[in-house]
Description:
CATH class of the largest domain: Mainly Beta
Mean pLDDT: 79
Strand content: 35-45%
CATH topology of the largest domain: Immunoglobulin-like
Structural class: alpha+beta
Oligomer: single chain
Helix content: 25-40%
Distance between the termini: 117 Å
Order of helices and strands: EEHHEEEEHEEEEHEEEEEE
Radius of gyration: 46 Å
Amino acid sequence: MRTFALCTLEKYGKIIVVSKGENIMKIFTKVAALSVLLTLSACGGDEEEKAEQQQSEDSAPTEEAAASAETEEETEPAIAEEEEEEPAEPEDGVLTEVGQTVDEEHYSLELLAISDEEQTTNIGPVEIKLHDAKVFAQEVSDTAFEQLYSMYASDKNFTTVQLTATITNTGEEAIGVSPVETVVLSTGQQLEYDTNEVGQYEKSLYGDYFDGVTKEGHYVFVIDGEVDVNNLEWIRVITGNTFNPEDYSTINEGTEMQFDL
Length: 261
């Protein structure tokens, strides 16, 4: 009967069976060789595990990176909302957007409010068409203009209301008309043609219209001081009457138009 000896490698849980007659050196040689093989095998497994773990970490974004990206996405629109666009430069000096400014030889203007909704009304045979209503902050820089506007304002800085108008006599006879008499603002100002309208002495739109005649121009009403533009909701325009050019007797009563801002 042959006798075998058991040699145990506890670290790796391996058992080596050898015969009793084998040389002890051969036994230890076998043990050493097996230990090396097992060690290399273990190291190889560790390296593969580390490589897989590193690959997983590289391919998947960290929670911190994901949170940072999400925060950036939420922040970008907020920044965009804060950036306000500057009003475009006016073409030919005509201001059409709130905030636009223009510097002329005798004065400078800033557009404070605008309604470009065209309004049309008829007083008998006379058609009154107002193309827009604008509110300006105005500053005069010329001595002659200062003297002119001093009749309406106590300072070279003031507010004006401008109406762009086209007046047509659609009738077959001459008729007199006062197209715009009064302008009322929702902020409490009432402006009269006789006392607040700059162009009243030219009478360019006021007066007699022969049959088929059309006149175009502007009304500019001056407000002595500032207007609370933030609370300005509308501008109401009250027209004058039509009248007989010979005796100035009334033919048709006036009417109203309103521009909502």
